[in-house]
Amino acid sequence: MPNNSAGQAFPRSARSHVHSTSSESARRKSQRTRVPSSAGYLVVALTISLILFFAVWWGLASAGDEASWVPAGLISSVCLLIAFSAREVLMRRAWTRYLLEQDQHEHSGRERTSKSESVKKMHSAGMHAAALRTLQMQSAEADSGNVAEIHLELFQACQDYLGNTDEALRSSSLSTESRMAIRAGQEKVRALQKHHMLTWARDASRALTHEAQQRGRMSDKIETANRALDCLDTALKVYADEPELEASKLAIREFIASVKVAHWVELAERSAFKGHYRRAIERYKDALFYLSRESVKEDVRTAGAERIMREIEMLRARINNNKKGGATEQAPPDSDAI
Length: 338
Known about the structure:
Strand content: under 5%
Structural class: mainly alpha
Largest sheet: none
Shape: elongated
Distance between the termini: 93 Å
Number of strands: 0
Number of helices: 10
Oligomer: single chain
Order of helices and strands: HHHHHHHHHH
């Protein structure tokens, strides 16, 4: 049995060598066939010029021209000059296209070689340990700074590390000690990955919420706050059960609700100041609508609704007093700002 297995190994290696040699020769042959050649072009050009020479010479000789070879020679010479000029242009373009194709083949070959080499290198436990130390050092530097985007980049770097180590663990050439070391490194990187994603979501959402508070227009405030919500939603797609993210989302939604309610309360107060009591009541009702619709804590919603209802009752009392006194409320203009 050992002899048979040994005997089968050598023919298999020989066949693989023959197969690789034949594939390499076929690849070289296909590359040689794509090299532009000018011999065929010159033969065709000379043939056409000779045919044109004899055709013109015979036609003029049949017409009685004794020096018919002169115009025939001129015409064939012009034809050759045009063919040679066109050949230069065509050959230049063909060589450029050929060189570009060769560069692309060489570049793709180098990429495949570099990828295979990088995979082989990453199969080494020492390379994984060095990558882990680099991630830990970069993590410490990011924690000491205040740039949120660095945490997102480190989260992506942790993803790359985990992807490379998963591919390495699928290899059968690793020893048991190397596998244990790689899996231990993966646990550390997963913890770093979660830490940096949560840190990025927290810092980015806080910065955007602060920016929203500084904006003047209601639409700008809400748009910036929604960007903060997008950051939190991105983190929730990865860590859906994280309570810190849900609490931050609730706080931002309450901020958006307060912006909308404050906007309509301010418009109602302006209308009441101008004496447009009915318009003010309608805008207070709009504020009540957003207060009941948006995500607001129950105690805040109750206190806000009670305050708005008191204002509405005061405005209705003013309207009744004006009616009793015979005064009529001036209708608000259509151009009143909202």
